[in-house]
Each structure stands twice: as structure tokens, then as C-alpha cells.
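hey can u check if this looks right to u? its 282 residues, i copy pasted from the old doc so theres a chance i mangled smth
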Amino acid sequence: MESPSRLSIFLLKSISMHEFVCFNQEIIQAENASVSAISSAAFYGKGVFTTLSVINKKPFLWEKHWCRLNENARKLKLELSDFSEAEIKNSLIETIEKNNFINGRARITFFDESTGKIWNLANEKGTSFLITTADCHKTKDTFRLTVSPYRINSKSPLAGVKSCNYLEKTLAFDESKMRGFDEAIQLNERGEIVSACMANIFWLKDEKLFTPSLNTGCLRGTMRDFVMENLKTAEVEGDLEVLQKADAIFLTSAGVGIVQVSEFNEKRFEKIESPIVKIISL
């Protein structure tokens, strides 16, 4: 019988998740991977993760993902010095090969398995890592966007950090789904557009491309960076009115790629030919 001090990672598993994962350099079946239930990861969600695209069995924008993982870990004081870039990348490639898929997505998660100072129990565990893979997200031909009632605090220490404490995001996402939408825009405490629940946002107006500034509290998405490196983009602080006046709206993330919004707050958008739609093929 499994010890009650272990928290099984099979809770992360979805229908499209693949059978094998890499946990601390060991390829095992997903249901056999676990982190300590007596840990900062379990108590507080202390950990960082990134989700990346896998294209032709290769991780897309790997360097950007690795850089952001380290930046986010430093903000949370999560120790990653025991892990090298080559080690984690090799483990990712091994997981892709074991699950035998060509195109999909992967998630790399680092968990703080120490107990922390509040519950200071004897525990010599440090940081663990988990690599999971899954099929690509399937997006609808008609993609409906709304506004979330839940706001983002741009002054939060977690603003712009992709941490395992992701419940606010998932609650906002689930709330939009309950109302029949595919995603929702989140505003900050000043009423500025930050992002969608699970993606960054871009919009076109008069053939000019815009995206929220990092000052709004938005996550520096890897796909966001990729778009901005290849297309001239203005970073702005704007309210919902700019989206109502936009000629087109796009959501970007490693999980979905680039999605063109069909409807926002009852405004319908026609599909348009734009360089951002083809950016993924660069």
C-alpha cells in the first residue's frame, strides 16, 4: 500500500496525457510518479513549470522555456542548481521517444519537496522534476472569447511567474467554460488587459499589432516573445475598449499555438490573412 505521505501525480493525468513520464531522470508510468505530500509543493504549490510544443519530436523554443524556468525559480527561491540544461533536455527527448509521438506538447515541472519554515519537519528532500507529454490541444473553428470576473494583481509576487500555484487561472478558465466560452480576458486592478486565462493576447488595429505590456502583470510567454521577435509589436496598457475596436484578436501559447478569435463580447470577427497567423511556420 502506498504511503500516505506521498501525493500521486496521476492527479495531473488527462485523457490526452501519454503513458510514460520522466520523474527525476527515471522513465516510469505516469501513475507511479509522486511527490511528497509533506512538502512546500503540496502545501503551497511551490514550484514552477513550463509547457512547450513538440514539433517533429523536437521541443520548440527550448532555450526560451529553459531561461524562463530559471528566472521564475529564482523569484520563488526554488533551487535548480542540481539540474543542468543538457540533463533536462535529454530527459525530455527520452520521454518523447518513449511515448512515441511526433507532434504534441510537453510540460516540465520543478517541485519544492522541502517542508519550508512554517511546517519545519525533518526532510532532506530538495527539488524534484517531472516531465509529462500529451497530444496537442484541439481548438474549434469558431473560438469565443469573454471577460473574466476575476482580476489579476499586477503587484503580486507571483505576477508574471508560471508557478504551480495555478488555481486562480484554472478557476477563471473553468468559469468561462461554464458560460459557454472558450477563453476569457483577465484585467488587472487598474482595468488594463493582461492576458487570457491560459494564453497571451495580441490584437490588430489598422494593420498594427499590439500586446499588453509586462507592466500589466502578464506572463512573458515564449510564443509571445517569438511573435514579437518576428513581427513589429507595440506593448501597451489598454482597457477593453481597444479590443472592441480591434480588427482582429489572437491568443498565443505553447499549448494552442496561435488562435484567431471569432467572437468577443458579441462582436464577430472575420478570418483575416495576417502574418501572425503564419508565424508558427517561420
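The chain has two domains: 6-134, 144-281.
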